[in-house]
Specification:
Layout lengths: L12 E7 L3 H9 L3 H4 L6 E7 L4 H10 L4 E4 L5 H11 L4 E4 L5 E2 L3 H8 L6 E7 L9 E2 L14 E4 H6 L13 H11 L5 E9 L3 E2 L2 H18 L6 H18 L6 H40 L1
Parallel strand pairs: 1-2, 1-4, 2-3, 6-9
Antiparallel strand pairs: 4-8, 5-9, 6-8, 7-10
Helix pairs in contact: 1-3, 8-10, 9-10
């Protein structure tokens, strides 16, 4: 196994997995992280499961499936805060993020270890969906070529992650916080390597209207509070429509277009309904953040 100059130290890697009410999927994820599957001795990495609904049953599950894994109570504020809390106690120099509904491939961790090189502090793995998307109501964060840096599969040097403040915990829902972290890396002029052999499999999820609305709300927070850009309603609706139509036509789901069209029409209507309130609320947040920043300088 090739690595950076020198020898990999004990507990070189800390794998961070936020979880919430998915014991069956978490169990599959943890089984895939055994040393036999990952190609590294157990003393070289730790697994931290941080649970936003902690219980003695989940603690036993983690300990039974992957002895030695760390189980901690999450703060109950979503995956961004969950990941940050785990990063604060991680022993490894490198932090590797994945999710409780992802299954790391054989040698996933060894692939990251082999990809290490001087001068690179961030690495992005590949995310597949082996079951495929069989319905326009299914979604998965498929990432075959890199450039996304989604939180289900990337590695970052812990010191860099902490210096950037980790994930922003102000996002209203579990969406866009990884995009925000990616853009902050770009703002610093930092780049990352894509490691195709460091792959995880993500099962398809059903695309529900509530989840779509929550994603749009986080989109508004990201652009207004984090990037200082106020989305226009017309352009937002146009972007959503283009994305939905392209997905329908690309995968040949013509027979399901009428049903999908009704859901996506409802999605557009809800965005229209909430557009002004999102803008007003997040503009107030942005102004408040500017005031706080001015007071600290």
């Amino acid at each position: 196994m090739q690595a950076r100059s020198g020898t990999l130290a004990s507990t070189e890697f800390s794998i961070i997995i936020p979880t919430f009410r998915r014991p069956d999927l978490l169990s599959l994820c943890l089984r895939a992280l055994s040393p036999d599957n990952q190609g590294l001795p157990p003393e070289m990495y730790q697994v931290i499961v941080t649970d936003d609904e902690p219980s003695s049953g989940m603690r036993r599950l983690v300990q039974d499936v992957l002895p030695g894994a760390v189980y901690r109570d999450g703060p109950g504020r979503g995956p961004a805060a969950n990941r940050n809390g785990a990063a604060a106690i991680a022993r490894g120099k490198w932090l590797i993020f994945t999710d409780d509904d992802c299954i790391p491939g054989h040698g996933w961790l060894a692939a990251y270890a082999s990809a290490l090189r001087e001068g690179c502090a961030v690495y992005e793995g590949r995310t597949t969906c082996s079951e495929g998307l069989r319905s326009p109501f299914h979604t998965a964060p498929i990432n075959e070529t890199g450039g996304n840096l989604w939180s289900c599969n990337f590695m970052v040097e812990g010191s860099l992650f902490r210096s950037l403040g980790g994930f922003d915990e102000g996002f209203p829902h579990a969406a866009m916080e990884d995009v925000d972290f990616r853009e902050r890396l770009k703002d610093q002029g930092l780049h990352w390597d894509f490691v195709p052999s460091a792959a995880v499999n993500h099962p398809p999820k059903e695309m529900r209207l509530r989840a779509l609305l929550e994603a749009h709300e986080s989109y508004y927070y990201f652009h207004i509070v984090r990037r200082g850009v106020v989305p226009g309603l017309r352009q937002t609706l146009l972007n959503i429509s283009k994305h939905r139509l392209a997905a329908l036509l690309k995968r040949g789901w013509r027979i399901e277009i009428p049903g999908a069209a009704s859901v996506f029409a409802a999605e557009l209507c809800l965005v229209c309904l909430h557009h002004r309130s999102w803008r007003r609320r997040f503009l107030a947040d942005a102004i408040q953040d500017v005031g706080k920043s001015a007071q600290t300088h």
